[in-house]
Structures are given as structure tokens and as C-alpha cells.
Amino acid sequence: MRDYDAATAFLGEWGRFQRLIFFLLSASIIPNGFNGLSIVFLAGTPEHRCVVPRGANLSGEWRNASIPLELRGGQEAPSRCRRYRLAALANFSALGLRPGSDVELEAVEQEPCLDGWEYSRDVYRSTIVTEWNLVCANDWKGPLSTSLFFVGVLLGSFISGQLSDKFGRKNVLFATLAMQTGFSFIQVFSTSWEMFSVLFVLVGMGQISNYVAAFVLGTEILGKSIRVLFCTLGVCIFYSFGYMLLPLFAFFIRDWRMLLLALTLPGLLCIPLWWVIPESPRWLISQGRFQEAEDIIRKAAKTNGITAPDVILDPSELQDVNSQKQQTYTILDLMKTRNILTITIMSVLLWMIISVGYFGLSLDTPNLHGDVYVNCFLSAVIEVPAYIISWLLLRNLPRRYSMAAALFLGGCVLLFIQLVPSHIHALSILLVMLGKFGITSAFSMVYVYTAELYPTVVRNMGVGASSMASRLGSILSPYFVYLGAYDRFLPYILMGSLTVLSGILTLFLPESYGMPLPDTIDQMLLVKGLEYRPPSSSTRDSKEEEENPDIFKSTAF
């Protein structure tokens, strides 16, 4: 009996075909990088104040004094949501009274912005906030738009795996790329906030679905050694490249509709990839379409300059390694024993907290001191060394201590931000970027760590449940940022405290580095504090993680 890897070993690991697939699938992830966090600029909130109509019968002096001052960030600034009652000011102006000397302004009655707002155009020419006045009483709508995008990501996570299993990896990849591009294009012509937000849900569904499809397609086509590199570095770093492009686009295009159009059009560049990227031979074999799978493998051999054997796939010899997996296991088995229940609860909390930290810091860049475009670019750049460091740590050091160190780094520096003097802006930005570095490193490592903790029979379900928790964390993250409107340091205090707590939690998880992968629930490593029971001799060597693409199917951001 031969499996697929043995049947295709003659292709080699890193020929021209594999390099082509590696880079093209990674490149298809780039649009996800700038679309996923585009809301940072699409929903940017510029400085604003109440409009005082030109027809108001006010002298220049009273017009200048019509907006009350409020304490914001330790300094007095014009109110964003209130003005003095114009009828009263008109009376004072008609009587020739002067503000401050003849009339005590603090005693004048105030009113909301009945005539709308005027917005600063120093940073943005227009955003959805200025288009539909998502400020003051409606300021909750901005974070809700972001949360609805992540609701779409959550829904897409549920259906993407089932769709690709039924219709094929390639078909779903390009169908959902078209879905993401198409609905983003329609968003450009949104006539209301409600229309924009509903379309954003659909864009989120398309985005995560093509991300997962590309992820799975790569793991199934590429060989053992390159597969791990693709999952840990290829996909993540190309996502970061896309993220880096976002502030560059936004810097030169300050109108939200034109910016969204510019971010949507690169999706059309993926159309030619349809004729280059093949369907997954593994999926074709699982559907009994052996001839199509063999044709793809022969074409790959020709691309690599290798002569293929006369018979590559013999249905009588190929074994379906997944045919007997997970047929008698359900989500309830994640609570079957005290040990697996404890690991499941800890994993769910870890993933949710890390997701809140990652997306919270990414969405918070407009609130940092300095240039919003530079800050967003730095937030994207810092992810590249974070992914590289996490890959090196996974290869050489214990999982538990690597994860805990990254989380302690990320959490502690966020807690230190409140101690930085208000005039030292560069130091506070540096600490935020260090926090992003630590949390991004942990986010990258938690996928592999979780996959190693769960046994083969429930591994997909375990990682999938944890991944769903991270989606919930991303839905909550905009509201952590929203708390900054009440206290500038509150989001950092909350995210920092939760991240340190998750670092402590990690220390109680079992260490999986260098240990055999468990096959059954009984063979699982025990959480710290319980007596360790060594796995049976029948347990597979941990290197089989690289040979089982199922480990990675649920591990998409």
C-alpha cells in the first residue's frame, strides 16, 4: 500500500512546479492583507465640531465662541458633539454683549449638533464617518461595521471547509476571490451605512473562504518539508506584504470610495492564475477522479523536467489515510475527559485573547500619536520579524515557554504605556509596536501548538473550535479600541492584562515539543499539575505532523 506522498516522491520537494505553486498561492493572499484592515482608513474619524450655520445672526466674536471647550487628552479642545444654544447666543450678540467678559460662557445652555458637523480634511478627504455622520450619538456604528466584517469571517469559516471538500479547492478559491472582489466593488457605490455594512459581511465571508482554500490547496500540493514553510512563513509574510500596501494606497488616495476601488481592483490580477494553479490532486483522488489527478502530476513532472513513471496512481494501491478518521467522533468528545476539557477551555481562552490583542492593536493605529499612515505601516512591518522569530522558536525551543515569553512581552509593554510621559510620543509608539510583535508571534505559534496538543481523532475539531474562539475575539476587538474614547489608556490596560493572563495560562499547558503526536484521547499529554502518563509505543513520531495536511486545514487567520 502506498500513500500519495510516496506515489509522488519522484517530483522532488522544490522544483519549478512547487516554487510556482508556493509563490502564486502566497501572492493570492496579498489582497487579504490590505482588504482585511482597510476599515482603519475607510472608517477613519477626523477631528470634527458642530456646524454653526452661516445664517445664524451672530457676530464674529460670538461665532468663534459658539463651541464649548472640553478636556481631552489632558488638554482643552473644542467639543466634538455640543455647542452653545444658538438662540441664546443670538440674543447676546444682538444686545452687544461680549463672551467671557459680559457673559459667563459656562452658564450658557448647550445643545447637540442640530445642523450637522464640519470635519477636518487634514488627514482624510472623506470616510464613511464623514459621509454618514457616524459621530457622537452614532459613533457606535463605526466599530459595528468592523465587527460585522468579522461576523462575515466567522460565517465564512463555518462554510469554507465544507464547500472546498464538496466542490474542490481551486473552484472555491476562485469563486470566493470573485465574491470578495465583486462585493467590494459594489461597496464603492453604497448609498447608506446599512448597505455598506451588509456588503462588508459578505466581503468578510469571501475573504476568509479564499484564504482557507489557498491555505489547504498549498498544504495538499506541496511536499512535507515545503508544506510547513508555506503554512508558517509563506502565507503569513505575504499577508503582511498586503498589509504594508494598505497605508501606501491610503496615503495617496484620501477619498474612501476611490480608496476602496483601488483596493478592490488588484483582485482582478488573480484571474490569470486560474490557468496556472491546478486543482488539488489529493482532493481529486478522494473523489475517485484518478485520471485528472494523474494528468496534473504528469504536467508537474514536465514542468520540473522529470520523466514520470508509466504508472503513478494505481487505485488498488493508494490508501486513503483519512477514510477512517473522525467518523465516530463529535464536538462533544472535546469534553469527554477532564484533561481534554481543560485543554479545550484553555485553548479557547488563549485564542480569543490573542485575537483581541492582535486585531485591537491593528485597528488602534489611527489613535496613536503621529502620522496615521506611518503608524499603520510600522504595525504591518513589525509582523515580518514576528513571523520569522516564531518560526525559529517553533523549530528550536519548547512551545510552552516560547508562547509564554511572547505573550508576557506583548502584555507587559502594553501595561507600561500608561507610565510613559505624555510628551514622549515615540516611546509610546515603540511600546505599542513591541506589543504587536509579541502578540503576532504568539498568534503564529498557537496554531502549531494547539494542533500538537489534540489527538488525531479530534485534531481538526479541536483546532476548529479554537479558531472559532479567535473569530469571536476579532468581533469584540473594535469595542476595545472604542473604549479609548473614554480613557486613552483603557484599551492598553485591558489588552495588556488579558495578554499577561494568557501567558500565565500557557505555562499550565503540557509541553509538546519533541513529544510524539497523540493518536487517541487517552494518549494526550496531561495538563501541568497532573501526573504525566506516557503515550503508548504505538504513537506516531511527531514528524508525522508535517505529513498530515489535516493539521493545517483550520489554521488560517
Please estimate the helix content.
Answer: 55-70%
Question: What is the CATH top level name of the largest domain?
Answer: Mainly Alpha
Q: Which outline best applies?
A: elongated
Termini separation (Å)?
Answer: 36 Å
What is the total domain count?
Answer: 3
| Spatial strand arrangement across the major sheet | 1-6
- Taking Cα atoms only, what radius of gyration do you get, to the nearest Å? 27 Å
* CATH superfamily heading of the largest domain: MFS general substrate transporter like domains
Describe this structure in words.
It is a single chain. The protein has 557 residues and is mostly helical. It is 58% helix and 4% strand. The protein has 22 helices and 6 strands. The chain has helices at residues 4-7, 16-27, 30-36, 39-42, 60-64, 86-94, 128-132, 141-167, 169-187, 193-221, 224-252, 256-264, 281-286, 290-303, 338-363, 372-381, 383-396, 399-416, 425-453, 459-482, 490-506, 544-547; strands at 48-50, 69-72, 75-78, 82-84, 110-112, 117-119.
